[in-house]
Amino acid sequence: MSGRETQPVALVTGAGRGIGRGVAVALSEEGYAVALTSRSVEQLEEVAAACPGPTLVLPADMVAPGAVDELVARVEQEWAAPEVVVANAGAGVSASVEKTSDEQWQQMLDLNLTAPFRLLRATIPAMKQAGNGRIVVVASVAAKIGEPYISAYTASKHGLLGLVRSAAVELARSGVTVNAVCPGYVDTPMTDATVQGIVDKTGRTAEEARRILEAKQPIQRLITVDEVVEAVLACVRNGGITGQGINVDGGAVQS
User: Disulfide: which of 40, 55, 125, 184 matches 48 by Cβ 3.0-4.6 Å?
Assistant: First the structure.
């Protein structure tokens, strides 16, 4: 953890690895003091060490009661209200509709939809008062289309994009923008888990499973973390972009 002087503040959830880590380091390089949160203290400390600027390590479980409000209050107390919020924490589960349990369904809604909603609700008032703010949620191309065996995940991401669109319209005259970045399959630990799930269920090798996911992008490869990070930064830098779901999927969904 390091101190902040005058830098603007950014808050990144799911910052311990993958896209969240990439976004946190990039925002630090852009001159933001970055508050980092995920469930793993060890991962957050590694990310903090990779950031060139001030960081605040705040481990939290985003679905725990009161966790989001406590997180935002802590950032405000330690530093200031965040000008940039990147809601990246999320997870996926794979099952056919008829085999999706109530627990799996609720898990997807709680983490992928309700937690970002609470984060927006907690951070929007200060942004409105300041007349400036950037909110970016990391959704998925599953926010745009349906795919088999991920109905709960897809429903949560469709809902997340709806939240973004409504919030963007509400805030259009306030100086606050709200956008979603919608990646395809990205080369991250989350995709590694998807590969392992395919291996376990089908008996294919990991290499075969990875090729299946690569083939879902017309560019025939996984999206890189850096490619997603650049889309997030575009939403942070450009006040003329709001209410959008920006696809970073190698051309899989044309919109």
Answer: 55
As given in the structure block, the two tokens for residue 146 are 């349906």
pLDDT in tens, 166-199: 999 999 999 999 999 999 999 888 888 888 888 8
Contacts of 72 (CB under 8 A, 6+ apart): 11, 81, 82, 119, 122, 123
Told to judge if 149 belongs to the known catalytic residues of this protein, a careful annotator would answer: no
Domain for residue 164, yes or no?
yes
Any domain includes 178: yes
From 32, 149, 153, 185, active-site residue:
153
Which structure tokens are listed for 72?
């935002």
What range does the domain containing 233 cover? 9-184+224-248
Residue 134 sits in a domain whose CATH number is 3.40.50.720
CA angle, 51 as apex, 47 and 58 as ends, to 5°?
50
In tens, the pLDDT along 5-36 reads 689 999 999 999 999 999 999 999 999 999 99
In a domain, 57, yes or no: yes
How many domains, the chain?
1
Q: Where on the phi/psi map is residue 188: left (φ > 0), alpha (ψ -120 to 50), or beta?
A: beta
Neighbours of 52 (CB within 10 A): 9
Asked if the structure places residue 107 within a domain, the reply is yes
Q: Using CA atoms, how far apart are residues 150 and 110, in angstroms rounded to an integer?
A: 16
Report the distance separating Cα 13 and Cα 108, nearest Å: 16
